[in-house]
Structures are given as structure tokens and as C-alpha cells.
Amino acid sequence: MLFFIDSADLKEIKEASELGVLDGVTTNPSLIAKSGQSHWDLIPKICEICPGPVSCEVLSTDFNGMMKEAEKIAKLAKNTVVKIPMTKEGLQAVVKCTKQGIKTNVTLCFNSLQALLAAKAGATYISPFIGRLDDIGQEGMQCIREIRDIFDNYDFETQILAASIRNPIHLRDAALAGADVATLPYSILNGLIHHPLSKEGLEKFLRDAEKIPKI
């Protein structure tokens, strides 16, 4: 499974990159708005930190506007991925982007049939939102499992990118369900390292190490 960080904070992204397990970055308009920078200025900086895929979302909702932005995003850096919403116009834009060799990440996916449409359109990634489905009483992880089965049935190359991950349990279950990628807030990615028994064991080893005769 690939690990992406869901952030537009350059400090967080740099720290995540230094862990040595970061494979990519996803952003969205809400995250970029918090940075105080435009995505045109910020995305190239993120791409310098992370050589892996960096998703940047279009802001237009019409086909022509999406394509104009998609082509501009694709030119920002060689590792950009254009994030496009799951709409009729969005699917049309994904088809054209695919024909032009522009990588895409279809966002705001909430069921397996939307994922099937995105795969048929040629999306590089499909982003089912696990946490938001859980929020309304549906099982987000079931969506991941269904998409995995459908994609395996037809050998689609589109990668399943588990999004809206709220806790480590979401990550574990997404990995078990066969998601190709998980995009995580930095707090969750960093927190995966820690376990109280790991800390307790290390402290014991260090105490015992003090008893070893020095040569």
C-alpha cells in the first residue's frame, strides 16, 4: 500500500517525507485555503519536497473550465495529478485528460458504481471517502471492498485511493480490503509509529543495557 499525506502544509509534508515512507501528497481547496497561498504557487513547492504524485484539484465545474485548469496543473511539475470531482462534466474531463496523458484523481466518490464509471473513463486514481460515508451511517469500508472486487473482475488499472481516513482503524481496514493507496492526515501518519508497548519495551531495554559491563 502506498502512503500519501493529505495536506497543504509545507512543514508537515517535509516532516512526513523525512520519515522515508511517504509516496505522495493529496490536497484540496479547503487545505490550500488554510495555507494562505494560491495552488499555482503552492503545488510546485510541494512537488519539490515530494517526488511522488501530488494531487491538485480543479476549481471549475464546467468541462471547458476543468480542461483549462487541468492542462495548467499538468504543466506545474512532472509529478502533478489533476483532481477532478465525480460529476458528468468531471467524467468527460477525465476521458479527455486520459487521452492527453494527464494523470487524474477522481474525488468525492461515494459508491462502487461511481468508481466503475471513473475507471471506464481512464482515471489514474479513484478516491472513495470512507469517513464521510461512516458519518451518515453507511459503512465506508464496504465501498472499498466492492470497488476492489469490481476492479479485479475487469482488470482495471485505476488505483483505489482510500480517502477521508479518520483513524488508524480506517487505515488497517483499507489495507485489508486491498486499497492501493491511503491518504492520511499527518497526525495519523505520525501516530502510526507509536505504541505504548513499544515505548515500554524500549525503556526496559535501556534500563537493562545500563547493567551490561562496560569493556
Record the SSE blueprint.
Layout: E1 2-6, H1 10-18, E2 24-26, H2 29-35, H3 39-49, E3 54-57, H4 63-74, E4 80-85, H5 88-99, E5 104-109, H6 112-121, E6 125-128, H7 130-135, H8 140-154, E7 159-162, H9 168-177, E8 181-184, H10 186-191, H11 196-209
Parallel strand pairs: 1-2, 1-8, 2-3, 3-4, 4-5, 5-6, 6-7, 7-8
Care to describe what's here?
- This protein has 215 residues and is an alpha/beta fold.
- It has a single domain, classed as Alpha-Beta Barrel (TIM Barrel).
- The protein contains eleven helices and eight strands.
- It has helices spanning 10-18, 29-35, 39-49, 63-74, 88-99, 112-121, 130-135, 140-154, 168-177, 186-191, 196-209; strands at 2-6, 24-26, 54-57, 80-85, 104-109, 125-128, 159-162, 181-184.
- The chain has an eight-stranded parallel barrel with strand order 1-2-3-4-5-6-7-8, surrounded by six helices.
- Strand 4 (80-85), helix 5 and strand 5 form a beta-alpha-beta unit.
- Helix 8 (140-154) packs parallel to helix 9 (168-177).
- The chain is globular and about 75 Å long.
- The termini are far apart.
- The mean pLDDT is 95.
Salient structural properties:
215 residues; TIM Barrel; 8-stranded parallel β-barrel; 17% strand
Overview in brief:
The chain is α/β, with parallel strands linked by helices and about 220 residues long.
